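pasting for the record
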Amino acid sequence: MMASTPTLLGIDVYWVATLLAAVAASAVLFAIYTATTVRDPMTKRVKALQERREQLKAGITASTSKRRAKLVQKTDTTDRIRALLSSLKVLQESQVKVAQTKLLQAGIRRKEWAVGVIFGRLVLPIIVGGPMLYAVYGTSMVAEWSPLKSYGLVAVTFILSYKAPDIYLKNKITKRSHAIRKGLPDALDLLVICAEAGLTVDAAFHRVSKELGKAYPELGDEFALTAIELGFLTDRRQAFENLAGRINLDAVRGVVTTMIQTEKYGTPLASALRVLSGEFRNERMMRAEEKAARLPAIMTIPLILFILPVLFIVILGPAACSINDALMTG
């Protein structure tokens, strides 16, 4: 007769241990893979900045027709997608511009991918929603469900698949904006030091991007690109406006407005940036205090679900075992 396996709350303990061991082994393998396949982010950043520098050079030295051809990089795939969307009458220039702005704010420099975003909105509902529609209404997989629940599953699948590109871009924009917000006060302090040292604006941006590139790579990338545009564009205001368009933050727009006003009216740059840096540091401190104030309420649920049951088991477990043994022997 085979011995019964131990159970906890009706669940096989050996099965749970095997599952947890498999999850731990998978996590270890994934950690080893990520550690051995780390890529240097500086290589990609330097390549993107070099491409932008070459584009600006081409825009200055070439004629109008050649300039347009060099500044706008297209691929055969992009041309085919654009032609298909145009033939279906679903491609609008306003949508392309909005998608290009979102790509820039997400840190994706290739504007021609905007057509791919619009194409994804058209194709993903067919690829994802079509099989779900067949599985719900063409098979008996969810035959016991009510009609309202089946319709809701199909509708949610179609909506999520249509919004998937926008959700992905919004997630990247949010993460990138938070990373840039963290380093903005330090960048402004360095800009103040560079301005007081007598450096020009483009040289100050280049120096700040070099110093902060390791700690805040996103902010260093944007400042380096702004320094390049300040050196090549004839209208320096356009370079600052491009910086505000690439970063979805009100704080950066305030810095850009300050830079434009100092360029236009000749007001002292260091004093204005020092005031902005102090405001941003106070704002960052207030956000940290707000998160610290929310921490007790957030920790309540994990405390009740995970810590207290284990504590009760540790405290009451030996007593329960002693009582059980006494009852069994008695």
